[in-house]
Amino acid sequence: MISTARHGFSMKLHKNLIRLRHMLDACREASEFIRDLSYKEFEQNRLVGNAVVRSLEVAGEAAARLTSEFKDKHDTIEWHVIVGMRNRLIHAYFDINYRSITTEVSGKHLIRVCLF
Question: Is 86 one of the catalytic residues?
Answer without folding.
Answer: yes
